[in-house]
């Protein structure tokens, strides 16, 4: 079943077309990697689908419904998650509170200032928080203030925040950037577990080609805003257009 599709998806920033007429189809429980040189439009594509940016043109259909132009929290509530950037971690809150806020946001809409007063709901989301923290092996850091975590743990916290929104589809934008080899291995395992154990459809942006070729069912290749190739790891490995894009063509 097709879970996500885009048609003619386009984003102009002034004179620059960051995403140009992109058509993609993602099947349920697929693990997709999006690759391409810096500036290819990978992050912009994710920002469009998750509602962080409004498209200039085109349509985005999730689970049979157009989500084009919806707000990020509406898209989150439909089951589309993302592993947030470090900038969106609340640095002075504990690991637990950061993940609880994500759980709460997915169930009850936008984060509200009343969050900490709603004690019953707070208790209600804690199990999901603990499941998410267990998945990224951060249970022991549950009471640690987010800002004092080492860099790799912060990245894992982002993944837990993404999982806590209870997504059917999750976007991960370079989750292993800056991680040690051990943390990278753990994250790679987690990405595979998300699909196999949690049944989550995954769209991953990743620079490390070893990871991409190891975990992906299919790979989408972008260059200068356009989708230039898509296919299985074997298809992509031998594709001359892909070689040319990476060699600066
Ligand atoms: P990637 O993630 O593949 O490295 P991006 O999607 O971040 O690429 O960027 C694609 C292009 O769009 C780049 O040329 C980048 O400079 C530009 N771009 C991204 N975001 C903005 C923005 N908010 N305003 C203007 N230009 C942007
Ligand atoms: Mg990017």
Automatic annotation (TrEMBL):
Keywords: Amino-acid transport, ATP-binding, Nucleotide-binding, Transport. InterPro entries: AAA+_ATPase (IPR003593), ABC_AA/LPS_Transport (IPR051120), ABC_transporter-like_ATP-bd (IPR003439), BCA_ABC_TP_C (IPR032823), P-loop_NTPase (IPR027417). One of its GO terms (molecular function) is ATP binding. One of its GO terms (cellular component) is plasma membrane. This is Probable branched-chain amino acid transport ATP-binding protein LivG. PROSITE patterns: ABC_TRANSPORTER_2. Residues 4-249 form the ABC transporter domain. One of its GO terms (biological process) is amino acid transport. It holds the Pfam family BCA_ABC_TP_C. Probable component of a branched-chain amino-acid transport system. Belongs to the ABC transporter superfamily. Signal peptide: none annotated.
């Amino acid at each position: 079943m097709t879970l996500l599709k885009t048609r003619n998806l386009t984003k102009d920033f002034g004179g620059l077309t960051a995403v140009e007429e992109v058509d993609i189809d993602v099947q349920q429980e697929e693990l997709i990697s999006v690759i391409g040189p810096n500036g290819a439009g990978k992050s912009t594509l994710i920002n469009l689908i998750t509602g962080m940016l409004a498209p200039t043109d085109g349509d985005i259909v999730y689970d049979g419904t157009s989500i084009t132009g919806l707000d990020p929290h509406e898209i989150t509530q439909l089951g589309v998650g993302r592993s947030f950037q470090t900038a969106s971690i609340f640095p002075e809150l504990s690991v637990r509170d950061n993940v609880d806020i994500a759980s709460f946001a997915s169930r009850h809409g936008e984060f509200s200032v009343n969050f900490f007063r709603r004690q019953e709901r707070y208790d209600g989301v804690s199990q999901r928080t603990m499941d998410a923290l267990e998945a990224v092996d951060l249970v022991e850091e549950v009471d640690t203030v987010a800002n004092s975590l080492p860099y790799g743990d912060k990245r894992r916290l982002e993944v837990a925040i993404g999982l806590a929104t209870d997504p059917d589809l999750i976007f991960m934008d370079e989750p292993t950037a800056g991680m040690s080899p051990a943390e990278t291995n753990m994250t790679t395992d987690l990405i595979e577990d998300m699909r196999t154990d949690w049944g989550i459809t995954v769209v991953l942006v990743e620079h490390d080609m070893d990871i991409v070729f190891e975990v992906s069912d299919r790979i989408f290749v972008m260059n200068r805003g356009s989708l230039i190739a898509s296919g299985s790891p074997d298809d992509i490995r031998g594709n001359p257009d892909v070689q040319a894009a990476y060699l600066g063509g």
